[in-house]
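Fig. S4 source data, part A: sequence.
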Amino acid sequence: MARAGGITNAVNVGIAVQADWENREFISHISLNVRRLFEFLIQFEATTKGKLASLNEKLDTLERRLELLEVQVGTASANPSLFT
């Protein structure tokens, strides 16, 4: 009888160890995927910041050109004799 109980305990321990390893493997996969996601987000942020900075510079340049053209059109409208 003691022998049957010992086998049952050994089986239960084996099942518990197997379940523990499966849980650890699952947690390891989750941790790895979270780390990959975090690294992607950091890279995405850096890339996006760079692209937005470049677009902002281009937009600033276009705004300055537009302001210059507005002044030139205003000057031409106010003094049409300058262009005749």
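Fig. S4 source data, part B ends here. DSSP finds one helix and no strands in the chain.
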